[in-house]
Design brief:
Helix content is about 70%, strand content about 0%. It has 15 helices and no strands. It has helices at about 10-25, 30-40, 50-60, 75-80, 90-105, 110-120, 125-145, 155-165, 170-185, 195-200, 210-225, 235-245, 250-265, 270-290, 295-325.
Length: about 325
Amino acid sequence: MTLAQELTPLKATYLDIYNQLRKKMKWTDKKIVMMVASVYVTSDREFAIDRYVNLSETIKKEANMFSYLNSPLRYSVAAMLDTRFDDPFRAFSDMMEVYDAMIRSGFNRSQYTYLAAAAFMQDHTEGADLVEKVERAVSIHRLMKKEHPFLTSNDDYPLAALLTQREEEMEKLIDQVEYIYRALDENGFWKGNHLQFLSHMLALDEEHTPDELVERTIRASEALKRSEIRFKKLLYPEAGLLAFLGDEINALNDVLAFKDALDQEASFRWQKEMNVKVAVNILVSHKLREANTIQTGLFTTLETILQAQQAATLAGITATTAASASNSGGQ
């Protein structure tokens, strides 16, 4: 399958950033390097290796000995801040204030709490507004846990933070999430953490009804199942992202072509599942830029959803490597 001409430069940019990162992060899990590279391709921020490495080292230096930020999590946080802020060093300082506010309000100390704090940062919320939003996120997380006590844990913090952007009453918002969860379960999706994440991710959309979201996601999942890709629970978020693009078939063809192009590269030959995730991230981002000139509201929503998916992937990858810090009593 031939890669579309418009996507060829994106692949070249991805390879260039990946290779620069790999030289500096030789002992880091390759999947982390791949996802960090894709975060830069999917942003408008020009990649500068020295700035990124300096930011990563600054985060490590300012973290205490037992902090989760001493783990490879710092690479994820550095990428999230560097791609969103002109002064990512100041943004890191602000993020730590948000993190402390989240701990005071009832969140546990975890790698996901840092990612949730970074998610809050996009609104530049301060003072009383910050306290109110943090408390709302804590309440949303408690409602999640009430519905799914055995599924809901610290890894849902970033989605709880992002869901504070919705202005509906919290109970109504959770009802919408549960409706999506049950509807997808009844249509072939497996219950569990991945479906819970997908239902929360879909609930960030304010442009479509829950029924429309469910129908689009089912169509996207069926298209994935008909393709060469083995559709697993791990790829539920990708089905959700493709659903927002509408034209699932053409979008999937582009994803398959991009994935195939990555599969041909020696560095990624044994990373086929990550290649799918990277391909979807880059394709959706590319479509977002086109959508921005058409529907600003939809663009903002999809950008937030893409951010949630990236945060979840990065958190999942870094979770095992952060375990040692957790066992030592992470801060």
